[in-house]
Design goal:
The chain is α/β, with parallel strands linked by helices. The chain is built from 22 helices and 30 strands. Strands 6, 7, 8, 9, 10, 11, 12, 13, 14, 15, 16 and 17 form a twelve-stranded mixed beta sheet that branches. A hairpin with a 5-residue loop joins strand 22 and strand 23. The structure holds zinc ion (ZN) (2 copies) and fe (iii) ion.
Length: about 750
């Protein structure tokens, strides 16, 4: 029997080739009617035999285009209209805007084939795209997603591009950024004094290759901003980049043209290979197996971050030399945001780069490369940005009003929510400098605009001095306002991802999070649900002499740990260099000595006590170095720590841990062995505490989250031990383990606490 269905499809269904897909599907199934884009998604009027309609709807769900995410299909039966054929109707604007914008993705196979085909019109044209690939999020200014609302607005299509654009059966049908050498943007090569060297792609790519091989540093405008590139095998070039970027330790990411090349010098598991080759093209952190690049790429580290090309220009550059390995680091000065505006590029990067490869199309929304590492064939975000943002996180429990959660001040990403989606921003870095703060504010307003969000609930951390807290206060004026404890947010972020409703045992291990007692937390064992939490265990407090200063000069933490453990200060390495007595007096008198119990700070202190790191140049450097040393051995000594329990909570004595480490030192145990013993001490005592909490509360679900779990030994060790002991372990896979994920937790807690049913 013939029927007429009115079908509404929501999700990422615009600008991803959804209508031509529906058009082809309709022809295949002999469906009559039409399809159109509106601001809510895609609407289809479909008439046909009942069986054919069923097949048609099934295929919509199952066979949708690569960039599409079908979130919801609503079907209503309507009166038969007797349509004669199937067509694509002009877009309709309704007042409700709920469509989503796809992320920026790697150039697809078909485009790549055309790009390297000398007979193709787009041969070596660096802005080749189609419906299935290329930039999206980075060029969208407003919705609906039409060319006029993107950075492509100023380029009018030539007749050839126009013809493809209008042909429903063409791969570029309604591809908003479509372009060709005749009508689209172009590349330019400049010297850093703004002298134009070339506008010819063949000349540019050859020159760039030559400059790189000669040891120069090149700023290359990519998808989400500028990269700084240099030859990764050239010691002098890499060192020069370190000096100019003022970045002594933090590892540089690499790019090379082929997966085979990566496998030559880094070890790649099947999962890592899959991620490297994925359309999101993130940086994947891999273990070095053969030294092929300069030691300055990742000083003293055995893990290196690497990615494969994703822009046409990158493919072209690497096609010249299959052995080429480049440093491809974000174009910025140490902690500043990635540079993405052309006016700024020469100003901010002119003293770092010798040459600039740029193009005449604006980057509207910036993003850094995403960073992922893999353990037990599961992937974890260190940074969730290009390729993943703004893909929504879908949840079952709807948000009846719009929400905004500002995240934290470190490794920031904020979140917005409406209906049944949560959208996290790209990585926005540490919000310390005015320039980062401005970028943060601009990005918040940009997101509210392009997703048509009008928040009625504003959520932030409880930290009184966070920039994000103060800003949220201002934004919230007169609206609902909530402050969420940092570690509760960490745990609920994971609960949101797995849609867990019942209480869990949550372990939030990190560097810093403001506690309800005004102290610095970060070794938290919580019994948490999506609304409330109870702090049931933590490591004992120790002082951070000088506060923020101690976080940078970690020898101060080493000294404080000795002091609290009642161990003579003679055990502190490099003590001759520092004003030990002044610090001791501060500790005695509790002067400017905020208290902390965080795992991150314990790592810092132990790193100092073992003489591995005395002061840091980048966040978590001391902890990373301690892990690196521990990876050098497989031998360790069992350190047993007795926890203390009272009615309300369990205290794990930090001083006992320190005493036992010093005992090992006294016995002449090597630093790698002590470092590994320390890791295992944390794992064993955590396991013991979780076991006790299970007895007490009868909970078997355990959530692990927080920046300290970026430590592979700790994550892998504790995860394995807990599973072996019969616990069900949940880890964040959609958002970062670090503070880049807390906005997700904040927004879900906000929903639970402030919105009824
Ligand atoms: Zn393509
Ligand atoms: Zn054209
Ligand atoms: Fe944290």
């Amino acid at each position: 029997m013939k029927k007429h269905f009115h079908i509404k499809v929501n999700g990422i269904v615009q600008g991803v080739g959804f209508r031509p897909f529906i058009y082809r599907l309709a022809l295949e199934n002999n469906i009559k009617g039409y399809v159109l884009n509106d601001t809510e998604g895609v609407t289809i009027e479909a008439e046909g035999e009942e069986e054919a309609l069923e097949k048609f709807i099934k295929a919509i769900k199952k066979k949708s285009p690569p960039l599409a995410i079908v979130q919801e299909i609503k079907i209503e039966e309507r009166k038969i209209n007797h349509f004669k054929n199937f067509w694509i109707e002009k877009s309709k604007a309704t007042d409700k805007k709920t469509t989503f914008i796809p992320p920026d993705t790697n150039i697809c196979k078909d485009c790549l084939r055309e790009f390297f085909d000398p007979k193709n019109r787009r041969y070596h044209y660096p802005f080749i795209v189609c419906t299935y690939c290329g930039p999206r999020f980075s060029i969208v200014k407003d919705i609906p997603y039409d060319r006029d609302n993107t950075a492509m607005a100023e380029f009018s299509m030539c007749p050839f591009c126009q013809k493809e654009y209008e042909d429903p059966l063409d791969r570029r049908f309604h591809t908003q950024p479509t372009a060709c050498p005749v009508c689209g943007p172009h590349l330019f090569l400049y010297k850093n004094d703004k002298t134009l060297i070339s506008e010819d792609i063949e000349e540019i790519v050859k020159k760039v290759y030559k400059y790189l091989k000669a040891g120069h540093i090149i700023a290359i405008k990519g998808v989400g901003g500028y990269h700084l590139a240099c030859d990764a095998t050239n010691e002098e070039a890499v060192l020069k980049l370190r000096e100019r970027k003022r970045r002594p330790f933090k590892p540089f990411a690499l790019m090379t043209g082929f997966i085979e090349k990566i496998e030559e010098f880094l070890s790649v598991s099947p999962k890592e290979r899959e991620i490297l080759l994925s359309k999101e093209r993130p940086i994947v952190i891999l273990k070095e197996k053969k030294s092929q690049v300069s030691k300055y790429v990742a000083p003293d580290l055995t893990y290196i971050g690497i990615m494969l090309p994703y822009t046409p220009f990158q493919y072209l550059l690497f096609s010249l030399d299959k052995d080429l390995i480049l440093v491809m680091t974000s174009g910025n000065l140490s902690d500043e945001p990635i540079c993405f505006r052309d006016e700024e590029a020469f100003e901010r990067l002119g003293h770092i780069a010798d040459y600039f490869v740029t193009y005449n199309r604006e980057i509207v929304a910036h993003s850094d490369d995403s960073v992922i590492f893999v353990i037990n064939e599961k992937s974890f975000f260190i940074r969730r940005s290009k390729g993943f943002v703004p893909t929504p996180i879908l949840v079952k429990k709807k948000f009846p009003i719009h929400l905004f959660a500002s995240g934290g001040d470190l490794k920031n990403a904020f979140a917005i929510a409406k209906d049944n989606v949560i959208i996290l921003s790209q990585y926005l870095g540490d919000l310390e400098s005015p320039i980062t703060q401005k970028v943060y504010k601009d990005t918040v307003f940009h997101f509210l605009k392009i997703f048509d969000i009008h928040p009625e609930v504003f959520i932030s951390d409880i930290h009184p001095n966070y920039f994000t807290t103060t800003l949220t206060d201002k934004l919230a004026e007169g609206k609902l306002r909530l402050k969420v404890q940092h570690h509760h947010a960490h745990i609920v972020a994971v609960m949101a991802e797995y849609e867990i409703d019942e209480p869990v045992i949550g372990l939030a291990f990190d560097g810093t999070g403001f506690g309800l007692d005004f102290k610095i937390w970060g070794s938290e064992f919580l019994i948490a649900d999506r609304k409330n939490f109870k702090r049931v265990a933590h490591f004992s407090y120790f002082a951070l002499p000088g506060g923020e200063k101690a976080i940078k000069e970690v020898w101060r933490i080493g000294l404080s740990l000795l002091y609290h453990a009642g161990i003579p200060i003679e055990y502190l390495p490099f003590k001759e260099k520092y004003p030990i007595n002044i610090i001791l007096q501060m500790l005695e008198k509790k002067l400017n000595c905020p208290e902390a119990c965080s795992i991150g700070r314990i790592f810092d202190g132990v790193s100092a006590l073992l003489g591995i790191c005395e002061a840091i140049t980048t966040e978590a450097e001391a902890a990373q170095k301690l892990e690196e040393i521990a990876l050098k051995t497989e031998n360790f000594y069992k350190i047993d720590i007795e926890f203390k329990e009272n009615e309300n909570e369990i205290i794990i004595p930090t001083e006992e841990l320190i005493r036992k480490i010093i005992e090992l030192k006294d016995k002449g145990v090597s630093s790698p062995e002590i470092a590994l013993s320390f890791h295992w001490a944390l794992i064993e005592v955590s396991l013991k505490v979780v076991g006790r909490l299970k007895e007490k509360y009868g909970i078997r679900k355990v959530v692990l989250n927080g920046g300290s779990f970026q430590n592979r030994i700790l994550l892998k060790g504790l995860w394995g031990k807990l599973e072996k002991a019969g616990f069900k372990v949940f880890l964040p896979q959609k958002v970062p383990l670090n503070d880049g994920g807390i906005a997700l937790g904040q927004i879900v807690i906000g929903r639970e606490k402030l919105i009824k049913n």
